[in-house]
Amino acid sequence: MKHVSKLALVLLVGLATAQSGMAQDAHKGHHGGAAQSAAPASEMAAGEVKKVDKGAGKITIKHGRLYRLEMEPMTMVFRVADPKMLDQVQAGDKIRFDADKVKGALTVVKMEVVK
After folding, report:
1. Could you read off the pLDDT of 39-90 as tens digits, one per residue?
2. What is the CATH number of the domain that holds 107?
3. What is the domain extent for residue 103?
4. CB 68 within 8 A of CB 98
5. Which residues lie across from 95 on neighbouring strands?
6. Same structural domain for residues 11 and 67?
7. This prediction's pTM
């Protein structure tokens, strides 16, 4: 009888794990993760500078999909890895950039102005 109970427990745990994995896959599909994750994580995102705040070391960007961060297009504020980056841009500039989490904050780590 003990063996039957252990077998039943193993089967239940396996079933729960499989269902959890399917739920996560469904959740990714809901957010476009599976269909849109084909682009490399290092691909720079397109964006438009909306605001530059040199005093705070921040930039507001209306951006496309950020693959590395698994974020959909939106407008948001980022810190910059190097404050000198803010000297290169002004509101209205089109840019390509890469962002990552640095010390828990979303940070632009690479940026170039699109001419």
Report:
1. 555 579 999 999 999 999 999 999 999 988 999 999 999 999 999 999 999 9
2. 2.40.50.320
3. 45-113
4. yes
5. 47, 113
6. no
7. 0.65
